[in-house]
Amino acid sequence: MSALKQRIDSLLVEPGCATNQAKSDKARKEGCKKPLTPGAAAGGCAFDGAKIALQPVVDVAHLVHGPIACEGNSWDSRHVYSSGPQTYRTGFTTDMAEFDVIYGGEKRLYRAIKEIVDKVDPPAIFVYQTCLPAMIGDDIEGVCKAASERFGKPVIPVNAPGFAGSKNLGNKLGGEALLDHVVGTMEPDYTTDCDINLIGEYNVVGEFWQVKPLFDELGIRVLATFCGDARYKDIASSHRAKAAIMLCSQALINIARKMNERYDIPFFEGSFYGIADVSDCLRKISKLLVERGAPADLPARAEALIAREEARAWARLEHYKSRLAGKRVLLFTGGVKSWSVVSALQEVGMEIVGTSMRKSTQSDRAKVVEIMGTDAHMFDELPPREMYKMLKESKADVMLSGGRSQFVALKAKTPWVEINQERHHALAGYDGIVNLVAEIDKALYNPIWSQVKQPAPWEIEALEAKGAAHHG
Amino acid sequence: MAEVIVGKKACAVNPLKMSAPIGAALAFLGMDRALPLLHGSQGCTAFGLVLFVRHFRETIPLQTTAMSEVTTILGGLENVEQALLNIKKRANPALIGICSTGITEAKGDDVAGFLKLIRDKHPELEGTEVVFAPTPDFVGGFSDGWGKAVTAMIDALVPETTVRTPWQVNILAGCHLTPGDIEEIRETVEAFGLTPIILPDLSGSLDGHIPENFLPHTLGGTRVEDVREMGASALTIAIGEQMRPAAELLEKKTGVPCRVFDRLTGLAACDAFIALLADLSECEVPAKYRRQRSQLQDAMLDGHFYFGEQKVAIAAEPDLLFSLSHFFADMGATVACAIAPQDAPVLARVAADTVRIGDLGDFEQHAAGSDLLVTHSHGRQATARLGIPFWRAGLPTFDRLGVAHKVTVGYRGTRDLIFEVGNVFMEQLHAHEQHITPASLGSHSTVAAPAMDAPAGAGH
What we know:
The complex is a heterodimer.
Chain A: H1 3-12, H2 18-22, H3 25-29, H4 46-54, E1 61-65, H5 68-72, E2 92-93, H6 98-103, H7 106-119, E3 125-129, H8 131-136, H9 140-151, E4 155-158, H10 167-181, E5 195-201, H11 208-218, E6 221-227, H12 232-236, E7 243-246, H13 253-263, E8 267-269, H14 275-291, H15 298-324, E9 328-332, H16 338-347, E10 351-356, H17 362-372, E11 378-379, H18 384-392, E12 398-401, H19 406-411, E13 416-418, H20 429-444, H21 448-453, H22 457-471
Parallel strand pairs in A: 1-2, 1-3, 3-4, 5-6, 5-7, 7-8, 9-10, 9-12, 10-11, 12-13
Helix pairs in contact in A: 4-10, 7-9, 10-13, 14-15, 15-20, 16-17
Chain B: E1 3-6, E2 12-13, H1 20-29, E3 34-39, H2 42-56, E4 63-64, H3 69-74, H4 77-91, E5 95-100, H5 102-107, H6 111-121, E6 129-133, H7 142-157, E7 165-173, H8 179-191, E8 195-199, H9 202-205, H10 224-228, E9 233-239, H11 244-254, E10 258-261, H12 267-281, H13 287-307, E11 311-315, H14 318-330, E12 334-340, E13 354-357, H15 360-367, E14 372-375, H16 380-386, E15 390-392, H17 410-433, H18 438-443
Parallel strand pairs in B: 1-13, 3-4, 3-5, 5-6, 7-8, 7-9, 9-10, 11-12, 11-14, 12-13, 14-15
Helix pairs in contact in B: 1-2, 1-7, 7-11, 13-17
């Protein structure tokens, strides 16, 4: 069995996963690998997932070892922000050609690493394996090891070729690369009793910066984020954190669990989307830090902060309540947890007419049922044609989804708000939910809707004539 | 003649190149009721899909055979079979265009052979054409893939014939043309009383219309039935050198003669095109085009002040690079830096001293000191670092609206292009004007600002 195969199998029986815990021994052994259906599959591959998880490390060079498709078609498409270095925005790829396929791409990879060291000299280089070099047997671990030794800097192999599986699996494979090669390899300049890690926070459109001030005010230091606006050194020295919050629907649960095992860093699952969720996170982390030796007044200070921020957010939302109450929303989310958005929208009185559970876990389902009272409005799949029909028949006033279904809504002449990772509006923290509601309000009340729904004069005449003939 | 320089770097920095399979997929997206299928991992499809969605701002029907590590090693027959059956059942398209990828080609999947087996085994696929374009990711780039898909469609769908319809014309459209360009070409051909069959026709499928129903395949584009008629046309007009192999195959198969236009932007190129249509149709050139020609001449007179001796850096797909380089040269500008993502015969004729095969890293390096950067949206990082104005051209352009409707061909398109780019130059003159001091005028004689307003009436 190949090392990659073993690794994937171990990830698929992840003991930290609630779904796995609920399974029988036999079912657990079989893992959770769902084969993709040819001709009916959608979504990214494992390479995509690994890149999404790791690319937010902003000061390293991300080098994609593969033919042009993997990086050439995809680079510079994610809005993850950096407060400093811009190295992560450069697309580096070996752009493998026929010659490399025949003779192997290892030499080209080694030379590519050298060129990056010579030209950019980043603190580290992440090398992503893709399908083609994996298939012809390029040993990226070996090349990275040799390059690390030769150039005296970390060259990290990320073994997540696309055909290994889904985007979600790729997130975890990216996490494994950090666990194997980065975490624990450096020491922080200093430590505090309130050092935490955020796991699964990617700083999409700067969302990390919406919550960071909250932690700052409480004296909680975010030692490392995995991996939004992260520096290589942050991740390398993250093993000294006292506690961690796992975000993004367990995408990086393997990091959370293994850092708990290896370095005794306790964690809980949280979300920065929705007022109640942010407060919940602050409460839990304060409590956890006190257990780990933080000052005893931390929870009380957190409560004061929560009270102030919640009041402020509610005051800001008040304006929208009368405008949005009773409006029906269709949710079609990917990575952002359905239930946190559901509860947020219910907070302003919106009615959820449906929510997708494509990437959600069993506990997510339970949570949605708890919030919505029933699972009647949950669906696992909603093909575009049916989604279009629902919207065309005005079964929802607004749709929230990722960019890929954007045009299904727009062609059905239905207001649409982006909530997945390509979004341009930061939705985290107390301000984030106000931003989301403001975006929904802006979309719903745009004057174009009544105009585009208006048929042409001649269409009305034709309809009337038809009606007259029918009745006459 | 431009000297073509191939770089020796192992690492591409900020790729200009996109892959051949998605080039082929876009060609299939120009077909009516079509569904392109990438034979590879699902990421191959997902990346192309996102790229096209961002550029066209439209839903993109694109499918994958979802190859896993195991199926790649064992061979993809079953995945291709399952994908075809699933797509047939779900979408019932008129055409499925299969594009292979790096892994399935390296493995050696014989897709053409698979298709024979699958067809025999599954009569229920009847009514759906399946065309295969071999497009390994590691050979060539986007426009090569596009060309291969068009060639494959001609090979598979056009029967040999001796019938001739004198008023019917084939238009083979290169991937550097926008839906708006294709619309312009169609209108022009029709204005001469001719009936064009355009292959592929993105103006039908990706022109941003609102369909009555939402279907899981393309809505609009070239119909399969029309492709079957292409052997009866009087002439094939190929636009872009990338379409030459397809045009020649069509000629070989059906005897329809072909004429390749390496560009349709610029006065001389448009003249040749219009003259050809007039000859073919034996019609007078319509007043509309005489008027547009005159407007273009006027635009050239008005615009030349702002183009003259400007240094331009362009990074684009080969045919687009060719067309744009000559456009700038026609207007008196110099193409100081020309970068293409992959080699092509047309590059030797680009209007520049040298053409580099390279990436946007090379572009950034060699474009320093020029007056204008021209490339797709990925050039925005370079423009920020170099502080040089930026005019977007090519795919992907994801940070501007209306790119599908932009017209750069024909008299009218060329005229508008002069205005659009000329305005970018003009704005720079205003910016420079702010910095003119007696000392700068004394020390440097080439400051162009005084030309600003004086000749404004020169075109009248």
